[in-house]
Design a protein that fits this description.
DnaJ_domain, 0% strand, 13 helices, globular, DjlA_N
Length: 228
């Protein structure tokens, strides 16, 4: 059963007048499958709110979501339905973010995954609007994401500066090379599909892992090359 089928099932349970925030409440007590559904809905719902923030409400949301998720043609309608439901929902994005923070209280890595997904979508149209930056900073604040983590993720996606390889690996320029290597290996392990699945990231979001692996390997190669 694909993640989109499970999401459709979750949406069918909504009564008239209920929004996606109700879905989060119902999924909150579930296990890994429910967390995967919640993660996917969270990325789409927040991206819908972000689209309103930068005024780009007419861009192709399915194309943007393909920056994060693998969406089969037969699943496009379901993915677009989640996007449109979130865009029309009276609940504000801050309410979504707070519910997500509560659901993933024990999963800082998963919250970083969520932010990466939002950055993927923010940059899908090739630009980064100031309103998107303000939106993402506020979401990161609600998720209690450390500022250093936010900057590291931002540096990988937004082409307004050369990505700092040390920031990407979460180390400082004066960190011994052996410690940098350990940080790199830890991030490689955390980016493995099995590790992502264990914390609730669906298999359909494999593109996120591919992008992150490229970035962390490039960061390590740059640092190791400078030390050689």
């Amino acid at each position: 059963m694909s993640i989109w089928t499970r999401i459709s099932d979750a949406l069918l349970a909504l009564r008239k007048g209920e929004g996606l925030s109700v879905v989060f409440d119902r999924l909150r007590v579930g296990g890994a499958p429910e967390r995967s559904v919640a993660f996917t809905i969270a990325v789409i719902a927040l991206s819908a709110k972000m689209a309103k923030a930068d005024g780009q409400v007419t861009r192709n949301e399915v194309s943007a979501m393909r920056e994060v998720f693998i969406i089969a043609p037969q699943d496009e309608a379901g993915a677009a339905r989640v996007f449109n439901l979130a865009r029309q929902d009276v609940a504000g994005y801050e309410e979504y973010a707070r519910k997500i923070r509560a659901m993933f209280r024990d999963g800082q890595d998963c919250l970083c995954d969520l932010m990466e997904g939002l950055f993927h979508i923010a940059m899908a149209d090739g630009s980064y609007h100031p309103a998107e930056d303000a939106f993402l900073r506020r979401v990161a604040e609600i998720l209690e994401l450390p500022e250093a983590e936010f900057r590291a993720i931002r540096s990988r996606f937004v082409p307004d500066a050369t990505p700092d390889p040390y920031a990407i690996l979460g180390v400082s320029p004066d960190t011994p090379l052996d410690e940098v290597r350990r940080a790199w290996k830890r991030m490689v392990r955390e980016t493995h599909p099995d590790a992502l699945a264990a914390r609730g990231v669906p298999q359909e979001a494999v593109k996120m892992a591919e992008r992150r692996m490229i970035d962390i390997n490039r960061a390590w190669e740059e640092i190791a090359g400078e030390a050689a």
